[in-house]
Design a protein that fits this description.
The complex is a heterodimer of chains A (182) and B (237). Chain A is built from 8 helices and no strands. By secondary structure, chain A is mainly α. Chain B folds into 2 domains: 65 residues; 159 residues, Tetratricopeptide repeat domain (Serine Threonine Protein Phosphatase 5, Tetratricopeptide repeat). Classes of the chains: A mainly alpha (182), B mainly alpha (237).
Chain lengths: 182, 237
Amino acid sequence: MERNTDPQNLESRLRADDKSALEQVYKLYRDEFLNYVKRYKIDDADAMDIYQDTVIAMHQNFVTKQLQLQQSSLKTYLFGIGKNKVFRYLKLKDRHLRWQADFGDQELQSPVEPELNEKQKLLARKLNQISERCREVLLLFYFRNLTISEIVEQTHYKDVNTVKSHKSRCMKNLKTLMGVDQ
Amino acid sequence: MMEHEELIQGYFKQSLSEADSQLVNRLLKEDAEFKAAFESYQDMHIAFKKADYDALKAQLQGLESTISKETKPWHRQAWLRYAAASVLVIALGVNFFFGGPDNLYEDYFETYPNVYQPVIRGAESTSVSDAFLFYENGEFEQAAASFDQLLAQHDDINLKFYRAMALLNSGDTEQALPELEQLSDTAFEFQTESKWFLTLLYLKLDQTEKAKAQLELLDSMDAQFKVKERGEIQKNI
């Protein structure tokens, strides 16, 4: 048995935003999940899409909420999320079929995932254009919801004030970048 | 200001106490400065989430293309199959010597996770979140009471399911039983789960025939939930 398949270890690596843990979970339950989805007669490409989104949602929950699964296994948790996504997909598809019967091929807006507003979309693009160091500190704070002190503990920053001033400089840079397109 | 920052981060981490969640809701209504800080944090959080999603999606698509189609599923790999079989034999043996059907409840019971709440939460009412927060933190009596309050306001079958789960986890089988019997007769998202937990509850209460009937119904529905565990139980009762 591989060293890192220990569930506790896997969960703590997921909490630490370890992308290799994500790949490990992906491979671990891939066949079983795709097999499970088959009975809903969802075509292969969509089933794969649902599985990938399920693994990503699970990973993001670990990363942003520092999730601790105390009473259910990782697998039950993952399949729970997946099942929810399958049902949403089927509901949407059903709506889509009824929509097509009534209105033909006109576009139906997906109500499933909350749509990003224009500002958030622009922000998401700009986050890829700021410096690596800025991206890191902002990600730790705004995405992983780590406090300034936690950031000091987990990184090379020497103290709270250094993090604060770096973070505020980075936010300023980001705002300037945002202004260019507005 | 620091206090506000902690509140906002706690909100997105879903780690706030009920009192603090209510405080966030109140500040959102009454304090314009807090609302602006909250919304700015939310914009950043959602933008990162989207950027992270795009990157992970690309990573998994790349990984998928490298996974060979010849890879055998685990149950076709001989050594794992034998390992699984021996674990099952040992488990059944242990169960034979140390416990009857009533122990099956303890063996197979596992808290059903919160899969109801969406991942991204907006700034709207969080009373449903509060109930799930209790549930996720293992405070099942408070969770059941919160679900009760929500259900008094409006009927929602999925919340009823989680109320039944909270009751079951808090050990209140007396109240959980009629709830689960009703839920397992209703076609909804968690019907198969309801039947599974009802089966376990019947086993706990020594009502083996009723448990068997539920397991047969699950088979006839072609339900995949806990299919392996169901097979093991069926062999054992």
